[in-house]
Amino acid sequence: MNDVGGRDSLQHEDSLFSDLASLIEDARLRVATTVNSELVMLYWGIGKRIRDDVLGGERAEYGSDVVKRVAARLSARFGRGYGWRNLFRMMKFVELYPDAEILSPLATKLTWTNICELLTIDEQGKRDYYMAMSAHERWSKRTLRAKVDGKLYERAVHVAGSGDLNAILAALGPGGTTTPELVFRDPYVLDFLGLDAKHSEAALEQAILDEMQRFLLELGADFCFVARQKRIVVDGADFYLDLLFYHRGMRCLVAIELKARKLEPGDKGQMELYLRWLDAHERRSGEEPPVGLILCARKGPQQTALLGLDRGEIRAAQYLTKPMCDEMQRRLTAIAEATSGEV
Q: Residue 214 belongs to what domain range?
């Protein structure tokens, strides 16, 4: 066999292997999704049966003992997963989400371990937010716990203001569109960058590039890195956009400018220039207009509101180089509680 024939044969074999591997992986994913969906709905069905039959009416006073005895028998027959603690979780699951038709579409995207974690959240709006986001972004239990600890819900409320987060989350449904209110948050916690209190924008950018995986995790799902220091030429003058991303959910480019200082009025004009140029030269067919995020060390609420940087195509958000202090956490929690009646 000559060298050319040998290379062609190997390429054909590699192509065949790749195609077969894709078929197997796709089938495994479908099987795993089906099994997960069936398991979640099975646990919901068990919880409903117990609530309706054992704990209803006059039986409620001795229902707890019945559940524990049934759990012991189920565990002996079917193994782990049917202990009394898990049965009580199933009952709580039904109590909080009694409508199977509403729950069913989420069941394919939520693991039981994630649901158990969600059941520990008392506030319904907060719990619903994390449930929708867990399903949308396919979070692991570890990621879910990190998002809760990192006050993601409170930061989302901070961005949305008094807007209806339920309506925003509804946009995640089939045929819906992910909105900037859901994607952007404020503040961004970048404590993993290890920056000094006094740092330059160049140092901030380099630290982000060095920790891109963790930065993407903080940004949220669906962000794809496109470029750093994107060259923009206007009237023969060169400008450089710090970071350029693409967001699959919003189907648009996302420009990010880094400011290692307080937000200034001119920052909005600079971003507007970049977005108009990206719209004219980089936006592809089928994409939405680009949006921008000014990530700054500090910003005043009045200036942010007057410039309209708390809404629209350009947003301003603060970044923190240290974990959120107690005061910041209290402020975010207060904002979430103040708008909880509207969420």
A: 188-323
Q: What is the pLDDT at residue 314?
A: 95
Q: How far apart are CA 266 and CA 17, in angstroms?
A: 55
Q: Is residue 14 part of a domain?
A: no
Q: Please state, rounded to an integer, the average pLDDT across all residues of the chain.
A: 83
Rounded to 5°, angle at Cα 241 from 178 and 194: 85
CA–CA separation, 68 and 48 (whole Å): 16
Split into its structural domains, the chain has a count of 3
pLDDT of residue 293: 97
Residues 67 and 163 in one domain: no
Q: Express as a percent the part of the chain with pLDDT over 90.
A: 38
* Cα–Cα distance, 256 to 268 (Å, whole number): 12
> Which pTM does this prediction carry?
0.72
Does residue 61 belong to any structural domain of this protein?
Answer: yes
User: What pLDDT is stored for residue 343 in this prediction?
Assistant: 41
Collect all residues with Cβ–Cβ distance below 8 Å to 297 and sequence separation of at least 6. 259, 260, 261, 262, 318, 319
Secondary structure letter of residue 138 according to DSSP:
T
User: Of 79, 99, 119, which residue is a domain's last?
Assistant: 99
Query: How does 121-141 read in b/e, with b if 16+ C-beta sit within 10 Å?
Result: beeebbbbbbbbbbbbbebee
- The mean-pLDDT minimum among 47-51, 79-83, 151-155, 334-338 falls in 334-338
8 within a domain of the structure (yes/no): no
Domain membership flag for residue 7 = no
Distance CA 156, CA 60 (A): 40
